[in-house]
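Hey, I was hoping to borrow your eyes for a little while. A protein chain has come my way and I'm curious about its shape. Take your time with it, there's no hurry, and the full record follows here:
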Amino acid sequence: MRTAEVRAVGRSEALATLDEAMRERGALWLVRGDRGAGRSTLLRALIARWRHRKRVVLPLWLPGMGTRQVMAAVLDTVVAHLERHGGSFDLVAAVTGVRERVAGDSGLLHSIHDVAGVLARLDQDEPVVLVVDDLRDDAASEHGAGLLALVEALRAAGVATLLASHGSGQLDVIADGVLDLLPMTDDEVDELLYEWRGNPLRKTPDPALTDALRRALGPLWGNPGTIVSTLDGLNLDGRITAVDDHLCLRHADRPIPLPRDHELVRAVREHGRTGERLARVLAEADAPVVDDLPALAAAAESDLPRAGLALDGFVRNGVVEVTGDGAVVLAVPALAARLRPARLAGGGPPDARTAVRERFATGDLAGLADDLRELGRSADALDRSARGAVAICWLAALKHEHRLHEIRATSALLDSLAPVGRVLQIAVLRSDTVLAAHAMTALADRADPETALGGKLLLGLLSTDFRALAAAWSHWCGAREPVPDGLAGTLAEAVALHDHATVADTVLGTAVPTGASALYRRLLAAYSAGEWDDLLSMARRVEADRTRPSRTPVEQLARVFAAEVCGQRGEIARATAWLSGVSPRTSSGHIASWVRCGIRHSAREFTGAVRDGWRDYQRARELGMVAGADRLLGRLIDYALRNDDRPTAERALDELDALHDAVGTVSTLESLLVLGGLVRGDPADVELGLRLVRRRPNQFRAARACLAMAQVSSDPRPWLLEAHRLAKDLGTLSGHEMVVEYMRAQGLAVPRPRRAKNGFSPVELRIVDLVSAGLTNRRIAATMRISEKTVESHLTRLFDRTGCRSRVELAAARLQGLVPGPAE
């Protein structure tokens, strides 16, 4: 007896291996894989390939059929083939006769011989391959023995046979080869998402979507059937959307459940109500151990024997895992999400103080707003001071989570605190810190710890003027708690960018881990750290989670920073699309103008960028806006100097000086030192500004400060090399061009990428060719019919192998012959 070759393979290798192996007459191969592993998809791809080559393919999908049923189905498929493509009368008559004998009382082995003979006659005219999916292979049964005899007869007749099965059996022994399908790789999953039927426009999957699926599916990550059915469920629930030509997940912080008809869910239901209750208990329990079964059974309202049988079934079917220390845990987080009962709205904490204390302690300010909404509905049960505490903390929580569109919900509570309640509401809407402090003092007891925290948080969120904040803080806190050193400047910078999570951290001393504010703070941190791909993913998530037609300030600013990144990378159309969703009247108008100015400059509209940027600055200044003005003024100074427009640069520097006198933040000081030193040619000021920049890592500011240092230094080379490295790390096209231009003006050699080693794949060479032609990753993905993430992965490897750090350098390396052109 021959010994089958058993190999664990991925999809691409399986396709190539079987395509080659099934060319041999009488070949017999078996594909094994768990349910949803992609066996059927693999077989369909092979069938399509073979039919394209005009090969006769007889496909059967007959899960769990017996041997006679399989033979009857084979003959029916032969008849259908002959009807479509024609066949001799004798062959049709022979097939019909065998079909009647198989359906009758003919002996099993006799019928097997007849079926093999029919297929052998068909194979004489043109090669035949029989493809059978989802076979049961139980050698102990009459069905199993008959199946073995059938496939051996087909092999002897020269008919190539490809079988697919869920598990192991006797077929493993007689087959020429056995392929065990491995879980899909990340790249293969990415391709699956790209080709998913819910993605007809072939949007690139956002990394946040794949990361969320990976966490939710756990050991089932890489199982295509589970991935597709889970995606279908999310799509049906409205949680899949398209943003920035990417496929995105809405509400990524919510659990992802398995589909209701998934085999693991069915495995739970097989044990009836006991199984469902026990599974829900396990989903809620904190890592119980096997010895806890009596308590688990009681919690599931079951007797011990039935609970034990259900648990045994769970282990057998992969519903739960028992760890080395005996802990019983659900194997798949998404299964827990499906089983865990939905939380009912309402039923908040029993009193205002408990609500505030618990939520402030955990940083869950989104939950605080919802809790206090419930308390606000029963305001009559609270005394005036308690109602004041609820109002103050509720408004602070709404402001923190950028939910002031819900402020009307506070009206009934504030009306019960007339007339001061409405004054507080007006102060919040107008961001009047001093008025808010006076109103809060009249409403609640400042000595109450939770109310004091709520009041300080609200004042911090309203502060756009550090002098007003200091006055309001002193009024609310009194002499017992002076304004901490540096607090006003820190809050002013955070509020200018609507970074409410940093405000809460500063005031409460507690990290805010979740919610819209926490996500936005991570976006700002990604910008500073130069992790711009992560920033774009987070900006897409902010946009995907938007629930109202009008955008909150944070939703607008997320688009602004996404536009800045795309503009710096030279993706002008994409940057413009991001910026188009930003209102010109946003409270951070200077920041939007800063980005708009940069986009125009990247589009090589050098004079127009400065002219229109200055006009935008003047308009926003007349409206009293200061947030982000230092960014815009710094960019205007920079671009004006490049245009040899010194008067405009000096005028913008005067404005920056006045701005620093007014707000006095670290950011304005950094800009004033670096750009003031650049205009005056003072290396000491520029170097001091660079030191400040490095205290708060910001890759883009550091690159610009190094370039400024090179422009005023007697030895520009080290500063230019550092600026060049930082610009390459960021992938900023305009920044890189600026540094290279100055290096050449100084007669310095521009660092060249090292020559790449041989062995580029055809895919890599094609990507290099398309990059050199100026295509974006998205257009490359569409041209090559691969995902954008796959393009990014190839580019990362290309950068590593060539020493290039940007698309510009890669294209230049191609022109210099350091990277070969595409293979012919």
Notes: The longest helix spans residues 67-85. The chain is about 65% helix and 5% strand. The domain at 575-745 is CATH 1.25.40.10 (Serine Threonine Protein Phosphatase 5, Tetratricopeptide repeat).
